[in-house]
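Hello Y.,

Per our agreement to keep a running log of every chain we model this quarter, I'm adding this entry. I've kept the format consistent with earlier entries: sequence first, then predicted structure.
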Amino acid sequence: PNRTFGIKDLMSTWQFPSMDQVLGRSERIGVRMAREGAHVHSPVVMIPGIITTALEIWDGEPCMTPYFRQRIWGTITMFQSLMRDPDCWSRHLALNATTGLDPLQKPEFKRSIRVRPAQGFESADFFLGGYWLWGLMIEALADIGYDINSMYMASYDWRLNFADLEKRDRYFTRLRQHVETLVSMQGRKAVVIAHSMGGNVWHYFMQWVAHHVHSNWVNDHIASEVLISAPLLGLPKAYFSLLTGDNRDFATMGTFSAVVDHFFGHETRRSL
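Predicted structure for the entry above:
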């Protein structure tokens, strides 16, 4: 690949949506809600969709040493590590093709590459610069009184299958504990807001918690759920992407689509 394509080239053409484009010229939504009487009620649990949780490097090969606990998915450090060594970046983002878990480091294969999801609200508030994800919802909820004691971002490693989320990270165990803590602190059942694949993660969790904890757990702890574009019946185009390495989902992201095509051909995307 052409290694002269750098960060400055990318940032000069990236189409950042401005805050005016996102919010218009009116006041913040949460401020208006507060003035109209909105306030903290049920605790809120947010579950992001596929690719919208940032991923951090915790252990890797020497080519990733400078990026310890920095993001190799999301924010500007993703592009820095990608452009510095595309092959290294793709090896660390990929999972073991046999186990679906952490791959082994080259060349000795004695240690695993460990990439883990970022935690907290910063893990899914925005992807890069002005490309907002959950940031505006977090801001609006904060304006009416919500904080870390009344809302929670349930970030996860979207590369893993759902069973492995529990096997490797105890994700569903921790999600249950966080919900129980919020419900106990607020004295009300929680509202779950899930986007895209996060809706499927949530429905898997409901079956899991009913089987492993108590059949009435959901009824006892959840007031309602809000699903935003959740593909509960599956997504046929996923087969096309797996077979071809198609990147049409990036088409609306301007220069990012060009960067993906520039560094990673269809075969590489297929293997990832």
